[in-house]
Specification:
Elements lengths: L1 H44 L2 H7 L6 H13 L2 H20 L6 H14 L1 H16 L4 H6 L6
């Protein structure tokens, strides 16, 4: 009985530690991604009169709309898969550097571009808020967008 109990306790402790590490890694990024979707959705649902008041140039409305469409095109499941690939790629970089194999390099490049999609949209939002809108940049800073 003692041996089995020890294995069970060890597995539980290891699983809990893995969960804690994974949660710590993903919570901040999930928060930022939720803000991208939320801010883009909120801006997308505003009437044109309100958008005119928020934008320095009303022509930038299309940039915000494009961001909204891009963010909405990524489902929650897709965002989780993209994030998972990103974590796997980061783990691979630390464990085994690429050996120069062109097939591995091209596959890795494809994964990298996918994993950067969420960060790219975050950067687009940050840029739009800072450069195109009259929204105070402190909103972006408080949301953690400047702390990539």
């Amino acid at each position: 009985m003692g041996y089995r109990d020890g294995i069970s306790v060890g597995k539980e402790a290891s699983a809990q530690e893995g969960f804690n590490v994974g949660f710590k890694q993903s919570a901040h990024d999930g928060y930022k991604w939720g803000n991208v979707r939320g801010i883009a959705s909120a801006f997308g649902s505003l009437p044109d009169d309100s958008k005119k008041k928020l934008l320095k140039k009303f022509e930038d409305k299309e940039k915000f709309h494009s961001l909204y469409e891009s963010a909405q095109a990524i489902s929650t499941d897709s965002a989780l898969k993209i994030y998972y690939v990103h974590l796997l790629q980061n783990d691979k970089q630390f464990k085994e550097p690429l050996k120069g194999n062109t097939q591995e390099s091209s596959a890795s490049a494809g994964e990298e571009s996918n994993s950067n999609e969420l960060n790219f949209l975050l950067e687009v939002l940050t840029s739009l808020v800072h450069e195109s809108s009259r929204i105070k940049s402190s909103i972006v800073e408080k949301s953690g967008f400047d702390n990539k």
